[in-house]
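seq as requested:
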Amino acid sequence: MIKPNSKPTPEEIFNFPCDYPVKVMGKDCHELHTEMCAIIERYAGEIHSSQISSRKSTKGNYISYTVRIVATSVSQLNSINKELQGHPLIAYIL
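struct tokens:
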């Protein structure tokens, strides 16, 4: 329960476990897909192809992925984001 005049905690906002979209953008190459999946699977378990959607940029140089996972905690999401941010093939995380 959120207290009046207080900032809600991430746990109060997300109500774990919950569906959560991890959005990643980078150069369109097979390695990006492989590396992104490996990082997310380390923290969220095996990803099925039905959990992944993608969209290429207008010129086809970049691709964005949305991977839907079951998020279980703020620390899990922070770990995923931190490792994705540190990967050289990944340009943006939303």
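Strands lie at 18-27, 52-56, 62-71, 90-93.
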